Amino acid sequence: MAIDRVSGPSAQHRFDRAARALALRLDGRPAHIVSPDVALRLLAEAEAAAAELEASLTAGDRGAAVPAQVARQRIAGWRPAVERAVLAAESATTADVALAGLLTRARLMLHRYARHFGGQHRATRDLGRLSEARVGLVALTRAAQPLAAAATDADLKQEARALPRFIEFLVQEQGEITDNLAASGRLDQARALGAIAATLEDGWLAEVRPVHRLARRPALLLRYLQSVAEVQDRMGAIRHANLPEAHERAIATVAAWQAQWQDEYDQTVAAQARAGDVARRVALADHAAAQWQAVEAELAEGEAEPASVAQLRARCDRLDEVLVQLQEWSTAVGVDAHGGPALVDLRDALIWLGQRYDHLAAPA
Asked: Which residues span the domain enclosing 41?
């Protein structure tokens, strides 16, 4: 499958596509995880398209003046980042490259936290998701320690030293969320638990239901099950005659979800056991390919229609989940041995979608 091949009927079209590909491969990335060959090729394609726009201006096409100027300004902005990637590739050690990859995974994990908890009241946050982030960050921090000791890049070493502070933050956040909910009155707790339940349903519908059973991560389903069970227990613990009838309906709804999700979890585990590892890897590769094809379509022609914050969050979550599973498989069977899109393609796509999410979700 060809990746980042820039083509189109006009110089502007070719420049726009090169710009989208550079955003995918270059914007906001540490130099150590950028492929200098890919970056140089895309920059050359953007420069060729810009030269054609300038040639049109010389030939008397006054409409090319602004596009040509914008193209040159953007190229000037990309060039230093491309040069940094080239220098990093020339000077980086194996430890530097491996550490940069781990730190990128840590940043993606923290972005997942920000996507779901940024601007959200503490009492309405899902502790299961937060706990998963903390456990994952602890594992990455432990893996980064020997690499940081061997690395030569000062910036990477400094970033690795900062990871324990993020773990401390998540531990503190978990305690404050629990305390905040416990200190609330019954009605406020009922509202908060209802909000958590709604968040869990939204997550299940986005991350679990659309995914083939063989391509799911059982631990994800189990996390949702544990979280919905905890919400149900807390709802039952604050039952009181003074609470509105809606609270009793919420308890019944959450109990129904728990039963449905338990059944889906059981069927997923059974299906995966029957199919075996090879069939699971094929299903996961197909799922990954579908995520990548959506990205390729946007690289070729841009967005078909503007995405909402919720849609971008869901896309980030699905791609994030694919990456988590592929990284687990790759550890067991070798890098990119799953047969689907390359891990680096999916990682770059997740960073790219995350940047678009940040831009759209930022306060006006």
From this structure: 11-91
